[in-house]
Amino acid sequence: MNGDAASVAYATGYVPGVVGRMAEMHGTYYARHWGVGAEFEMLMAREICDFVQGYDPERELLLSASVDGRIAGTIAILRPEPGEEGARLRWFLMDPACQGRGIGWELLDRALRFARAHYSTCYLWTVTGLPASMHMYEKVGFTPVKYEDDTRYGAALKSVRMDLDFTKAPVR
């Protein structure tokens, strides 16, 4: 994957291969960096399948970027859960071979424009130890609001909830 701008294609909604690729990228990345195993990848696959099966394009967004015909990045905006008011940003991940080329910024920008048009707030969960991700999230206005120890996946992680209030954040 060379990742130059001319070879990048963005797609909204389901495209063949997106479910498997999203689970694969998450399983591979988190295994390499955090030591999680099959339990985590299977959980991601189940949750991604559930999301795609109930996907509502009026209230949710699934966005992927392909480089040279291969899915290189994904992001999703999920409608609010019962009891929640804001949308949830999920499954934002880039293939390491395509990082640093602005594709991730484009995915994030498109996802947040969708969320801003439909909701007044947005939140996400991430883990500490991801400085590039934290930089991106903070740069677009997300603020850490809660830290939790997380050992659900066989690795000791520190999860971080970040919130973005569109009524207070500047439009990019």
Features:
172 residues, alpha+beta, Aminopeptidase, 4 helices
Give the SSE map.
Elements: E1 8-12, H1 18-34, H2 38-53, E2 61-67, E3 70-78, E4 87-94, H3 103-118, E5 121-127, H4 131-139, E6 143-150, E7 157-165
Parallel strand pairs: 4-5
Antiparallel strand pairs: 1-2, 2-3, 3-4, 5-7, 6-7
Question: Would you write up a description of this structure?
Answer:
The two termini are 29 Å apart. The protein has a seven-stranded mixed β-sheet with strand order 1-2-3-4-5-7-6, sandwiched between helices. It has helices spanning 18-34, 38-53, 103-118, 131-139; strands at 8-12, 61-67, 70-78, 87-94, 121-127, 143-150, 157-165. The chain has a domain at 5-124: Gcn5-related N-acetyltransferase (GNAT) (Aminopeptidase, 3-Layer(aba) Sandwich), CATH 3.40.630.30. It is α+β, with helices and mostly antiparallel strands and 172 residues long. The longest helix is centred in the first third of the chain and has 17 residues, at 18-34. α1 packs antiparallel against α2 (38-53).
- The CATH architecture of the domain at 5-124 can be named as 3-Layer(aba) Sandwich
Strand count = 7
Q: How many helices does DSSP assign?
A: 4
The unreliable regions are none
Main sheet?
7 strands, mixed
- On the 0-100 scale, what is the average pLDDT? 89
The proportion of residues forming helix, as a percent range, comes to: 25-40%
Query: Would you state the CATH class of the domain at 5-124?
Result: Alpha Beta
End-to-end CA span: 29 Å
Spatial order of the strands forming the largest sheet: 1-2-3-4-5-7-6
